Amino acid sequence: MRWGSLYLVLSLSAVPACRAAFEPVFQSPWLQGGVASTLFPRSPLALRHNPVSLGLLESGGVAVSACRPFGLRRLDRTAAAGALLTGDWAAGGMISVSGDGSYAETTADIAVSWRLVPGMAAGAGLCACNLQMGGYGRATGAAMNLAVAWSPVPGVYSTGILRSLLRTGLGDSGDPAAPRSLEFAAGIVPSGEIALAIGVARQEGLDMDVSFHTSFSPADLLSLSSGIVTDPLRFWAAAEVSLASLGLQYGYGEHSSLPSTHSVSVAWGGCAFQPEPLDLFPGEGSGEEAVIFPLNVNEATTEQLRMIPGIGPAKASAVVSWIRMNGPVASIDELLEVPGIGPSLLEVMSEYLTAE
Question: In angstroms, what CA-CA distances link 242 with 225, 247, 262?
Fold first, then answer.
């Protein structure tokens, strides 16, 4: 689905064909690090690269982005994406356009994700691409991707992606619409400020890619991320400034053989994934107040609700805000009306909460 812009890179750059013909360009500044960076999505723009990422977002939202791949104006691309969360389900769509008069590429994606059980989610995505190149005509193709994400314990996360499980041909060329690949990533969040991940990807016809991702949030309003992908060697870095529900991102990518890539994005909705940190010694030295369960949900604070497995800061805040706006609940089942709370999560919460 990304071959159009990459073929143009090949025709405009004095680099070996094996390196330029399949260079990926990630639309989101936060996702330049390959599969390793898809483990911690910051906006709906992640759905193209990993459809299960929708199920990791804390809430629905929208995002737009602009990118100049490899410093080439002729490859400028823009994208818009949105996601909606309801209970255990999440759905989203994305469209991106790039190119100029001699080259144009339009790509549309839809994806769904659902929480199978607490700590595990699955996702599926369908991507369709229309490619036009001067002298070569127009071609259209589509491919389906499947993904899964799971967290065996808080603070440890992993994902697996099978790209192009089903695919069409790219017009009448006889080539597949997208290369088939198998990708896997595992990550750890040692504290609330740091996240680390490593990923491997094997695409048909190419050697294995290895990617590394690290992110650091020194303050609530600032997040920094960087990493490398090899082979060939690529370095990337990104920064995000969060202002209430608004997130502003800038990304920079450096390639060993190609010019640098710049990208920016704006996301609204406070939808970034907020992973739980690893807690090897729960209750020891945390400095948090002791909580005795079951807890009356009508009197619970955000900090208390965050101590329930599977509830991050956004969901805890959503529960408290909903009760403040709608009044006390008579039954825990009423929490199904809170955005982001589905049957499987409610089942876990019912073990820790009462309604009095």
Answer: 14, 4, 20
